[in-house]
Amino acid sequence: MHTINAEEVTPEQKVRIFLEALPYVQKFRDSIFVIKYGGAAMEAPFLVERTLRDIVLLEAVGIHPLIIHGGGEAINKAMKSQGMRPKFVNGIRVTDKDLIALIEKVLCKEIGPFIAQKIIEYGAKAVFIPGYEVFSAVKWQAFSSQGYPIDYGYVGSIVAADIHPLLKLLHNQFIVVVSPLAKGENGEIYNVNADIAASKMAKFIKAKKLIYLTNTSGILADEKNPNSTISVVDKRRIDALKKKELFMEA
């Protein structure tokens, strides 16, 4: 398959693309899109540029993007460099005090500011906000299949978000970048699942779209066929898929 570069697109093709996109631009102008940014789109330099330029374009046509970013491989690399060995229970990583400090450093000192700076370089206004300044959480209560409690350490379950500062920034043409961290009632920092953080944010801020950029296949029409991804769903279709038991709530 031949990939068309921007330089290869003729003026006529550009006009046609714009005309095809125009109804969607008009429909979603001044809407908030929550984008979960992770996977290969955060790792490969050419994908980083392409993805962030596309997000800048969304803002340029009047859409308000809010990014919840993942940790990518950066956390794993940082753990390895520090000689830290991950501990898993039932396939889920345990986050102890040393690890949450490392995660906070990687997310809030490296990845988040990097994304915001790149967006600025590509011509838009951007601001990074640590997730613990936005999300409130309680300690995640997990149980084994036998009903015994499992302590995953500093892993949180989001219960609220302070969206008012975010709304002000978004409507002043800032692209907002938020890390998947949350604060507990006693000031402790919790690691939270970035996919869940994005869905919670979309609900709290009443986003028109929730977009996942990820390596995983997503919702499959046929679980045995990785190419059967259902790219776009709304609440009505989700309810229908649940009835067909194609997926269950996570």
From TrEMBL:
| Gene Ontology molecular function terms on file | acetylglutamate kinase activity; ATP binding
Q: What are the protein's UniProt keywords? A: Amino-acid biosynthesis, Arginine biosynthesis, ATP-binding, Kinase, Nucleotide-binding, Transferase
Keyword match Transmembrane: no
What EC number(s) would the UniProt record show?
2.7.2.8
Give the EC class as a word.
Answer: transferase
Q: List the InterPro entries.
A: AceGlu_kinase-like_sf, AcgluKinase_fam, Asp/Glu/Uridylate_kinase
Q: Which Pfam families match?
A: AA_kinase
- Where is each Aspartate/glutamate/uridylate kinase domain found? 32-234
- Please write the reaction equations for the catalytic activity of this protein: N-acetyl-L-glutamate + ATP = N-acetyl-L-glutamyl 5-phosphate + ADP
What Gene3D superfamilies does this protein map onto?
Acetylglutamate kinase-like
Q: In which pathway does it act?
A: Amino-acid biosynthesis; L-arginine biosynthesis; N(2)-acetyl-L-ornithine from L-glutamate: step 2/4
Instruction: List GO BP terms, alphabetically.
Output: L-arginine biosynthetic process
Q: Which GO terms describe its cellular component?
A: cytoplasm
Q: Is DNA repair included in the keywords of this UniProt record? A: no
Q: What is this protein called?
A: Acetylglutamate kinase
For this protein's source organism, the top of the classification is: Bacteria, Pseudomonadati, Verrucomicrobiota, Methylacidiphilae, Methylacidiphilales
